User: Fold this.
Amino acid sequence: MQARMMQQPLIVSSLLAHAARYHGDAEIVSRTVEEPGADDGVAIVDGVHRYTYADAHRRAGRLANALSQMGIGAGDRVATLAWNGYRHFELYYAVSGMGAVTHTLNPRLFPEQIAWIINDAQDRIVFFDISFAGLIEQIAPHCAGVERWVAMTDRRHLPQSALPLHVYEELLAAEPEDFAWPALDENSAAALCYTSGTTGNPKGALYSHRSTLLHAWSACLPDTMNLSGRDAILPVVPMFHVNAWGLPYAAALVGAKLVFPGPALDGKSLHELFEAERVTFTAGVPTVWLSVLQHLQTSGATLSTVRRMIVGGAACPPALMQAFARDYGVAIQHAWGMTELSPLGAINTLKQKQLDLDEDARFAVSVKQGRPPFGIDLKIVGAEGDELARDGRAAGDLLVRGHWVIDRYFGAGDSPLVDGWFPTGDVATLDADGFMQITDRSKDVIKSGGEWISSIELENIAMGHPAVAEAAAIGIRHPKWDERPLIVVVRKPGRDVSRDEVLAQYPGKVAKWCIPDDVVFVDALPHTATGKISKLQLREQLSAYRWPVAA
Ligand code: ADP
Assistant:
């Protein structure tokens, strides 16, 4: 029997329409890309732009009209190369809302990679922040398919360029703010994001309106990110990295204040914004929180309003969680995800029965990557594809399925799925309560004498030493054991730690055969465009390394 309920499509434009109508005066605050001289004394003061969801909705209407005027239609890809800011937010909603596809480009990639991605996606227009004007000049000659390059600024701040640039503010000024947002098919494409392609060419994940809405809805739940209209959310995670983990959508869904940091992502600038805008919730990769922690420790500053911090994208060192909880009263929540998962796959929130555990036992749960929210299903399998026990001990290849998981890549013919499940390339354990713990990327596992050693575990232990800023474990060829672990360590500024002191961290925490055979000290570790340690580059840098003594 057919139910008698309204059918309203789950579409991105409905989020901003809701925020504008029911949270119209909630603020969106952005540190601008233009120098503080860009102040207009109204919306922009001291390099900080301030307006509301109602303003954003009106300007998104103007932008959608401008896009239509430029001939953009359903399914066309419109790219952005931009920091987290209000114009980028308007693009998210105008492009997807009118039926086109918002394609976020990662400016930290090499110019050739960006050009390759633009061509692969067949982007028709590229919108860019003026800080990327030089980058645009480099890539434009290689992107014949791009019809327009639009500088996200006004005429006054338009950079000199050999390209015929369009000016964002002029496009908006020429159009009316009323736009008839179409009732799109919820299964049509809304946004496109490429994986960073650490091996091989990047691949596009093409999100639907429906998957984006369900992901945002889930993100707000108390056991997920617990977002509400009482929060001020500062996404440090870039809007070009898996849509800032969905926060620009989730914030509109609940009408939370949004605070965008622009290009100023150092510890001091973030801290200033946290305090000035009374931020309650923030999210980013571990390296960002390491730099915020260093700033707090050296300046003696505290956090008066931030209470929750999501750490994901790479394993969060337990020492980082402890420092924020103990010294600053901030609960770090560990989360795991991937571009292919929009990105949320698991997040760490304790269950009622775990609240009474002693501190050590609670902490042992909190360091895991977390459990899947409703809408995501996880399993681990062995080498033969056999499902492994959910006992917190067996480690195997992690597979996932759910409402916001890709079923194939953009443009690619073959489905990557295995019996309807997406293979993540991660190795993990799952416990009886559903908590998942990543032990490694499958390509980073250290294989010693037929056994697997978790590089993440070795890194976390090294980072437990107070003088260690960052650590990476890699497998180095060994004549007898196939590979043995080497731990590469960056010391904190002005701190000293010896090889033996690093190695003394291990006994009692891991089996004897898992302890690294040697320590190498470096000034800095290589990072990828998404802020993770690049093991690929590190292995190249250490290719001349030889074990000191044959063990
Ligand atoms: P890319 O590999 O292109 O940077 P993603 O940003 O989507 O793509 O990265 C996804 C991968 O990041 C995951 O498969 C996993 O290996 C790693 N990752 C994400 N979150 C965590 C976490 N909390 N702990 C450990 N690894 C993580």
Remarks:
- The chain has 16 helices and 25 strands.
- The radius of gyration is 24 Å.
- Residues 195-196, 198, 312-315, 334-339, 343, 369, 424-426, 438, 441, 530 surround adenosine-5'-diphosphate (CB under 6 Å).
